[in-house]
Design brief:
The protein is an all-alpha fold. The protein contains 5 helices and no strands. The structure holds zinc ion (ZN).
Length: 107
């Protein structure tokens, strides 16, 4: 992912609307790119700051953003892992069904 793509996806990331693949690429990019990380921090500060104007509690946005990045990454990784497991299970079930059907019809 390049900087241009990354910056276009900041809003989607903050809305939690990126898919697993994009989330992983996005988090990896902002972690290695100072410029995009800065942009993300500003967007995060604006969106979270506005949400919390009423409550006026103090918050540590740097930590929170870091938590959000970690959480998004592990969720995305889990989802991809889960998709692979599902694929394997479906394959095995289909294979067993095929085997079952072929033994049923040979007798
Ligand atoms: Zn960048």
């Amino acid at each position: 992912m390049n900087c241009y793509e990354c910056k276009k996806k900041i809003k989607d990331f903050l809305d939690d609307s990126l898919n697993s693949k994009n989330t992983i690429e996005f988090v990896n990019h902002v972690r290695s790119c100072k410029e995009c990380m800065e942009e993300l921090s500003i967007e995060y500060l604006v969106s979270e700051g506005l949400k919390r104007l009423d409550t006026a509690t103090s918050f540590n946005l740097d930590n929170e953003l870091n938590d959000k990045l970690n959480e998004a990454l592990s969720k995305a990784k889990f989802n991809r892992y889960f998709a692979v497991i599902c694929g394997i299970v479906i394959f095995i079930v289909a294979f067993l069904l095929g085997l079952l059907l072929s033994t049923l019809f040979t007798y």
